[in-house]
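We emphasize that the prediction below concerns an isolated chain of 658 residues; any contacts that depend on oligomerization or on bound cofactors are therefore not represented. The input was used exactly as deposited, without trimming of termini.
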Amino acid sequence: MIKRHSSSPSHQLVVGKLEERLKNHLKTSIANMEPEMSDYLSTTAKVLRTVFVEMKLNIAYERHKDLLKLQTLNGLSMGHHHFERTSASRMADFLSQTMHNTLLKHLKDDNKNNALSIMVDESTDRSLHHYLVLLIVALENERPVTYFYRNILLRDDESAEGLMNAILECWDADGITDLMKKNLVGFASDGASVMTGRNNGLAKRFERFTDRNFLYAIHCMAHRLHLAIRRALNGVQSVTNLEEVLKILHNFYYGHGHKRKAHLRDFADEFGLKLREVNSVFETRWIASEYSSLFRLKDSWKTLYLDLESISRDNKHSPSMQERARNLQKNLINKNFLLLLIFLMDVLQVLAHWSQLLQTRNGLLVGQEEIRTGMMENLEILKTNDGTTMKVFLMIAKCGNDPCNSEERYRNSNPKYMSVKLIASTDKFSKLNEIRHTIIDRIKDEIENYFPEGNLKNFDILLPKKWPWERGLLFDFYGITEIIELAKLFKIVEDGNERQIHQLAQDWKQLTHQILKGEERCSMQTANPRDFWPYYLQKKNILWSEQMRKLIRTILVLPIGSADAERSFSIMNHIRTSRRSRLKPENLESLMRVRMNGPKDLDTFRARDYADLWYKAGHKRSDDPSGIKRRLLDDDDHADNVDEDGLRYKSSSDSTLF
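Result of the prediction step, given as a token string:
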């Protein structure tokens, strides 16, 4: 009976209707697949975003389950899986490796004929492991971008050959050795002999490694400027003595426990005085930090003077401490000391401006000669004219009942500063008028030694604000000589090949005339070269020759220093604290990569895209319905901190107040 029913007309009718309904359902499901997919991985995206934040904020993976639980308690669905520390670690590795693979794809796909530069530096972490950090500068949408590439753990061989072998091993593993051989044009380091040795330094070895046998090696310009200033100032005894006073003062308050520092702070609070923490001057600091040390001393001068006087008169302090306080007080009220301090602040302010520009990320060689020239002119002015800080100081300082207003009057009288009578002594600090020219001349000589005049002049031809925009005919000749010299330097044209040189000159004239006639000429005249050249490289109606495009791209990727490499080690030391001293080198590298290459803002992190890649790589979704029982405890957790249902933490005191 049942067998005959399957062939009956009524049964066939019902089956047909069911099949039709099933087809319609499938069509609807396929049409709505994309919106459903968005919800399908949304929970996984939330967990990955949480891991990304943990990496950015240096939160230990042991806290991962607590962050997910917090979000669950706040009403978010965080799924059933990936609550464990090991899951956070796997996701962190996945994010890092995905970012690394994205960089490699960019280098291989978008930079087949583009120039590349590298930054290298060495450092030691808190666990005394020695690392070589390697950054790559490449173009992204025709703009130079510095990428973290590797943080290589060095074993035994730290020679130039050993460093190069370590780098080549990474390039071989990533399949970019031939690419780097073809496109590597720039190399930046801190100037250590292992990096810049004349014959067998790392830069020289990479020069021989490239296809063109050429590499533009740069000793970090910010570091060079710092060395120049240190050498100049170390040759002036009064300046050396001033720095020594700062070191003794810092040690007096901060080198003997907390009591003296607390005494100073309480003293400032009691009398409503200004106080900034006094810094010492260290050889390794950047110029802006040296300026900050002097600024803090000047700003806290009255507070320090009065506190030292209080200590020197209070018999509850030891005689030796009272004597040290009196000696420091005498230095502070020495009018030559104070005037030298103010003068150095004006000098360092001029120098710090360039130093900070040299430390900016993705800085260009274009425009550095102009900045150098302006800085040298400003230093020359300080020989005979007072800077802003000096003018304000001489207005505050009293010579009799009136402001001093001039150095000469200050020097020839018994001035007061902030109602404190100053003393005159030349034992340690010469009169400023006797050493003013010497200080400026020594600084200028050292800058000339480290940055020879005209050494970067050709690069400034690419500075749009120097172009003769209002004199169109001059574009027929403007910059041709400099462009040819740059092309020869980077081996884009052969020296002596008249045909190539003539063609390049014509290409330059054609390019500048196109820019001159463009609608944007007015708005682009004062544009930063970092914005100017990428804009025109991407502009469709600008005709570029292959040689000219290659030259501009080469100049754009040349770094001005290795400050970014220094920053990467600061990040490394921030990550590898005493609480995370057991981080494996590969995990440390992952954290550094996400910190440096990952987006700065959380809302620009493409969590949904990473979740899609995570799932396609064969990983489980965070809300996968299989295996919903999750392990809340790590191996080192204690079972007696959990209720019988295994889901709720108890406090050790069983308190319900919190």
